[in-house]
Design a protein that fits this description.
Layout (H helix, E strand, L loop, with lengths): L10 H13 L6 H21 L20 H26 L9 E6 L6 H7 L10 E7 L1 H12 L11 E2 L8 E2 L3 E5 L5 H12 L9 E6 L7 H14 L3 E8 L5 H12 L13 H10 L4 E6 H10 L2 H10 L5 H9 L1 E7 L26 E6 L9 E2 L5 E4 L5 E6 L2 E2 L5 E2 L3 E5 L3 E7 L13 E6 L2 E5 L2 E3 L2 E2 L3 E6 L12 E10 L11 E6 L2 E5 L12 E7 L3 E7 L11 E4 L5 E4 L11 E6 L4 E7 L9 E7 L2 E7 L15 E4 L5 E2 L2 E3 L8 E7 L2 E6 L1 E4 L3 E4 L3 E4 L4 H9 L12 H11 L7 E2 L2 E2 L3 H10 L4 E3 L7 H4 L3 H8 L3 E8 L12 E6 H18 L5 E6 L12 H4 L1 H4 L8 H5 L3 E9 L4 E5 L4 E8 L1 E7 L30 H6 L2 E5 L4 E4 L4 E7 L6 E8 L19 H20 L1 E3 L2 E2 ...
Parallel strand pairs: 1-2, 1-6, 2-5, 6-7, 10-36, 17-23, 42-52, 43-44
Antiparallel strand pairs: 3-4, 4-5, 7-9, 8-9, 10-41, 11-14, 12-13, 13-16, 14-15, 16-17, 18-19, 19-22, 20-21, 22-23, 24-25, 25-26, 26-27, 28-29, 29-30, 30-31, 32-33, 33-34, 34-35, 37-38, 38-41, 39-40, 44-53, 45-46, 45-47, 47-48, 48-55, 49-54, 50-53, 50-55, 51-52, 51-54, 56-57
Helix pairs in contact: 1-5, 2-3, 17-18
EC number: 2.1.1.290, 2.3.1.231
Family: Belongs to the methyltransferase superfamily. LCMT family.
Keywords: Methyltransferase, S-adenosyl-L-methionine, Transferase, tRNA processing
Length: about 1100
């Protein structure tokens, strides 16, 4: 419970404090954003206090109404508060007790104090009478922050502060002063000139020769590296009896670190020093270089263990406050914060075993193998999240591979637990599934097990909806298809679910390991129960014809209590278990063989590299030998000590080795691994919430384990009919050739009009058909932008996000065969120039195809604006006279597009009218009228048919009809293409006189602005009126279907409803065709 001040703050005084704070003006700079991190911190501390983690009677002065934070944030700030309070208090008491301290006094300086309450708690809290000597506190921060703090203190109830405390918020240099406490307004970056002088000015008691404790919480990394180093040097130089504590963020280069630094950068409060001083080793070196005599560093793994995990009483108290199951996040939090303790005193001060020199990395394992990391075949996997049990592989007769999974914590679905059954085709991407819901349908689950019993048959056991609500049911899922079927993005697969066991205490577990060990036998090992304790008893489930299950308890002698371990079944039937963690947050460094028949385990290996949990163990065959590949995970010790790189365990020899890794390994944890082809492992899912910053979700990736892995993977991705010229099915080949004869090879040309403002206004007002205007005036850009050197000179350092496709020039939005990469503008220009030269010389597609489409710097809230986002280039570009006056007031966004031959951009439509200004290079644009929507096999706003010159007519036969209605235009520099909303367009970049092909789109409204979706940042969201019309038709259709009866009380059979729907679809298509022909107007 919180200790409370004598009275709550009156609303009158609270309003007064707010008025005062409004009068305190903060400069409009990055400083303001950094200062606002103080607000985030104090709100989180207040949440931890209100939840009972720690007592602080003064935080309510600065945050009157608590805002509940997540258990992870509450625990994180609790640990921070407890550790810093304990360390500073111990240091004060040790200083007061030193024989050399003749004055028996200590001065404590908090740098970047913000609304820190340590001084208030120490001087005025319940334990104030226990202190053995005088201590003077100095809270130092920007003057505006100290004035704000003083204003809130002035609104406190009478009696909160002693009468001799002077609180004058108007005084920027010293808004609060007393015999034991001073608030000091100073910019720390001016340390040498101002800090010491300011401290001397506010208190006659201050002396640099006094025993001095200085602490800084999340301050040093926000300062420029040279200023932070200078501050340490200043402190070391002027304070001969100094004890310095710095609590800082660490490790900016891993997955969590990138999210952390990116989030703070986006908030305009960047960590300016973290790249220079990224870890404990660098922290120690900086302090020693600054003149400190003794320096130690404590990581939060050890601090967490000392303050929480090793005290059973405290751990149980904390566990009772809130349900907690964020162990991976806790590990990442421990990894990315640490405390440096440095002193100028002759003798070091002992503050516990946590403060040491940085631990050395454990000796590496042998490294004779190589693993290379590659992008997923499509840029996106349907599941972005974690806790989905596992992913299983189904191979189809045509060579395609399906990946099947269930449930999990889905970041895409608003960070919710889901009960979605997913099917992903390596060739086609996500395949729609319909789970036939009934009384057996499970809720959204995480940390369950998901195992394959046989072809298209799976079992789900355990899992949870919350840490205190654990599932004990067992479910069988059937995917109703056969290996001879083919799937596409237009397929819909049916899934049924049956609950075959209910509520057993043995199956009521989550974070367990599972493995199918025989015909319809499933072993569950470890895990946690609803009490938060480890499940010590394993169980064997015997599933009988997919309808019933018997549960047999198994005691495995020698296996410690654990959860989040990984299991693998070997080819000889043995079961291998490795890693895992216990409830005291201690990971195991052990690998075991499980002997189910004898009920015991044998230790196979013990190695620091195994000290991980939430990892995967996958059996693979390489060069005729069996290996277990261990990937990812989280540890309970620093990554500098425990190497979390992949491990190969040779089953026959028992040797382990860490391979050389080519490419970037993300911080995989809570992910799944599945063998896609010989020597190819797919890694999907995984991630965690990065404390209070944002969420990291690992992108799907491929691991190539052998030299022939790439070729093996390509065979999975290439459709069998594409190899028909050398194939064995002449019937299908003949059909393809016969269909190709019907393709339209000569397209109608887009009409050309002579440009004038009046003609353009007339065309754009009617918005009926596309047209092209040749050689219009668009400024000096047509000549200047043709020069790569000019582009680099004016925008070279600008960071842009480019589409990157590997091994293909056909960009596919539906299957996402590209990823995004941040590069400097100069790098983009150089790459495109070299790619163009390669294509000209060899006639081949470069290894990587890059395409740039500009987005706003604040892409989640603002639209692209070429004149604003590229101020230098924007001076060269103008809209033609008459176009500017018509489009300007209606402009939605303007996009800069840069690429080179032979790129092709997927067919899609936009919901805005559009003018495309061709600045440099040449493009072919193929357009389709809105009437061809169905013939283009649309998925959202894009078509999966990406090669218009060689379409797959077996899979997309209606493209024959679509191409009959297409029109085409080749754009040259200075040309302007107009096309109305909802016209489909496909772009092909052509070789020309210049390597760079640059154009600018201007999207503009045809109707009044309120008629469009205000959240549409890219011009591809349907008008709200269109969306409402579709929803109205669908809802009325669903209602009619639900109420359809043969006779009263007897529902129309579902097969008749389906037939009626297909008749309605035919009728609606006829109606749409009538509208197109102008025969009917609605």
């Amino acid at each position: 419970m919180e200790n409370t001040p004598p009275e709550t703050i009156s609303k009158r005084k609270e309003k007064k404090a707010k008025r005062v704070n409004k009068k305190i003006s903060l400069p409009g700079s990055v400083d303001v954003r950094v200062q606002h991190t103080n607000d985030d911190s104090v709100v989180s501390k207040r949440s931890a206090v209100s939840c009972g983690y720690v007592a602080d009677p003064f935080l309510r002065l600065f945050v009157r109404k608590p805002t509940r934070r997540s258990p992870l944030v509450n625990r994180g700030y609790y640990l921070r508060m407890v550790v810093m309070t304990d360390l500073i208090t111990k240091c004060i008491e040790k200083c007061l007790a030193m024989p050399s301290n003749s004055s028996h006094s200590v001065q404590v300086i908090s740098l970047g104090a913000g609304y820190d309450t340590f001084a208030l708690r120490y001087l005025l809290g319940d334990q104030a009478h226990e202190h053995s000597g005088p201590v003077h506190f100095y809270d130092v921060d920007f003057p505006e922050v100290m004035q704000s703090k003083a204003a809130l203190m002035s609104a406190a109830p009478p009696g909160t502060f002693p009468v001799d405390w002077s609180i004058q918020y108007e005084n920027a240099a010293n808004p609060v002063s007393s015999a034991s406490y001073s608030a000091v307004g100073v910019d720390l970056r001016r340390s040498e000139e101002v800090l010491l002088e300011s401290l001397q000015n506010v208190s006659s008691q201050f002396s640099s020769s006094n025993l001095t404790i200085v602490y800084a919480e999340c301050v040093m990394q926000y300062m420029p590296a040279e200023k932070a180093a200078s501050l340490i040097q200043t402190l070391a130089t002027h304070f001969p009896n100094l004890y310095f504590f710095a609590y800082d963020q660490l490790h900016p280069s891993d997955s969590f670190g990138k999210v952390m630094t990116g989030a703070l950068q986006q908030k305009q409060s960047p960590l300016l020093s973290v790249a220079t001083v990224p870890g404990g080793t660098e922290m120690i070196a900086r302090a020693k270089e600054g003149g400190m005599r003794h320096v130690r560093f404590a990581n939060f793994y050890d601090l967490s263990r000392q303050y929480i995990d090793e005290s059973e009483t405290e751990r149980e108290r904390v566990d009772r406050l809130e349900a907690f199951d964020e162990f991976e996040e806790w590990g990442e939090m421990c990894e990315h914060y640490g405390i440096t303790f440095a002193t100028t005193a002759k003798e070091p001060m002992q503050l516990g075993d946590c403060f040491t020199g940085c631990e050395a990395k454990t000796p590496g394992l042998p490294s004779n193998k190589q693993v290379s990391v590659h992008h997923w075949p499509s840029g996106r996997f349907g599941f972005a999240g974690w806790g989905n049990g596992n992913v299983h592989r189904e191979e189809l007769a045509n060579g395609d591979v399906l990946l099947v999974s269930f449930g999990g914590f889905d970041v895409i679905k608003q960070h919710q637990r889901v009960n979605t059954f997913r099917v992903h085709s390596l060739r086609e991407g996500e395949v729609r599934t319909v789970l036939q819901e009934n009384e057996h349908t499970p809720p959204g689950l995480v940390f369950h097990s998901f195992d394959r019993l046989g072809p298209f048959t799976y079992v789900v056991a355990g899992g949870r909806t919350s840490p205190t609500s654990v599932n004990g049911d067992v479910f069988i899922f059937k995917l109703h298809m056969t290996a001879t079927q083919e799937v596409s993005i237009n397929s819909t697969l049916s899934v049924t679910c049956t609950r075959i066991a209910s509520g057993s205490s043995l199956t009521e577990r989550y974070r367990h390991a599972s493995v199918v060990i025989g015909d319809n036998k499933l072993l569950l090992v470890g895990g946690k129960n609803s009490s938060g304790q480890c499940v010590t008893e394993a169980c064997l489930l015997e599933i009988q014809e997919g309808q019933a299950v018997t549960v047999q308890p198994i005691t495995l002698e020698g296996l410690p209590p654990l959860f989040s371990a990984a299991a693998a079944k070997l080819s000889d039937g043995r079961i291998l278990l490795c890693g895992g963690v216990n409830c005291a947050f201690k990971a195991y460094d052990t690998m075991w063989y499980l002997d189910i028949g004898k009920g015991k385990v044998d230790v196979v290996q013990q190695c620091a590299a195994l000290e991980r949990f939430s990892h995967t163990a996958t059996t693979v065959q390489l060069d005729g030998e069996e290996f277990v590949l261990i990937v990812g995970g989280t540890s309970t010790r620093p990554k500098e000590v425990v190497n979390l790189d992949p491990i190969f365990y040779n089953v026959k020899s028992g040797q382990m080795e860490v391979p050389h890794v080519e490419g970037e390994l993300p911080s995989w944890s809570r992910h799944a691994c599945v063998e896609l082809a010989s020597g190819v492992i797919g890694v999907v899912g995984g991630g965690y919430t990065c404390f209070s910053f944002a969420t990291f979700t690992a992108k799907p990736a491929l691991l190539y384990l052998s030299p022939d892995a790439e070729q093996n993977m390509k065979r999975c991705l290439v459709a069998s009919r594409e190899s028909l010229p050398n194939g064995t099915d002449p019937t299908v080949g003949a059909n393809i050739q016969r269909l190709s004869n019907f393709l339209c090879t000569e397209r109608e040309r887009v009409r050309e009009l002579t440009f004038s403002p009046e003609i353009f206004r007339n065309v754009a007002t009617k918005a009926e058909k596309p047209c092209v205007f040749r050689n219009v005036n668009m400024g000096s850009c047509t000549t200047k932008w043709a020069d790569p050197a000019y582009l680099k000179s004016v925008e070279g350092e600008t960071v842009v996000s480019v589409h990157v496709a590997e091994g293909s020039h056909l960009l596919d939005f539906v299957r996402k065969n590209f990823t995004f990469r941040h590069v400097q503008f100069s790098e983009l220009v150089d790459h495109l120039v070299s790619s163009n030269a390669y294509h000209r010389e060899h006639g081949e597609v470069p290894q990587e195809t890059w395409y740039y489409r500009s987005v706003s710097t604040h892409m989640k809230t603002e639209r692209s604006d070429v004149w604003k986002d590229f101020s230098a280039l924007g001076k060269d570009l103008v809209l033609p006279p008459g176009v500017d006056s018509f489009v300007g007031p209606r402009l939605h966004q303007s996009c800069l597009r840069i690429n080179t031959a032979p790129l092709q951009l997927w067919t899609h439509y936009d919901t805005m009218d559009n003018v495309l200004l061709q600045v440099t290079g040449r493009k072919r644009v193929v357009l389709f009228p809105p009437s061809q929507y169905n013939n283009l096999y649309m998925s959202g706003s894009s078509s999966p048919v990406i090669d218009l010159d060689h379409p797959d007519l077996v899979q997309y036969p209606r493209m024959i009809e679509a191409l009959k209605h297409s029109t085409e235009v080749t754009l040259e520099p200075g040309d302007m293409l107009y096309f109305p909303a909802n016209w489909f367009h496909h772009i092909t970049t052509l070789q020309g006189d210049t390597p760079l092909v640059i154009s600018v789109n201007a999207f503009f409204h045809h109707f009044e602005s309120p008629d469009y979706d205000a959240k549409d940042l890219y011009g591809n969201k349907d008008l709200p009126a269109v969306t409402q019309l579709r929803e109205s038709i669908l809802n009325q259709t669903r209602a009619a279907m639900a109420s359809a009866q043969v006779n009263p009380g007897c529902a129309l059979p579902v097969e008749y409803k389906e037939f009626a729907l297909r008749q309605i679809i035919h009728d609606l298509e006829s109606l749409a065709n009538d509208i197109t022909a102008g025969a009917q107007t609605l």
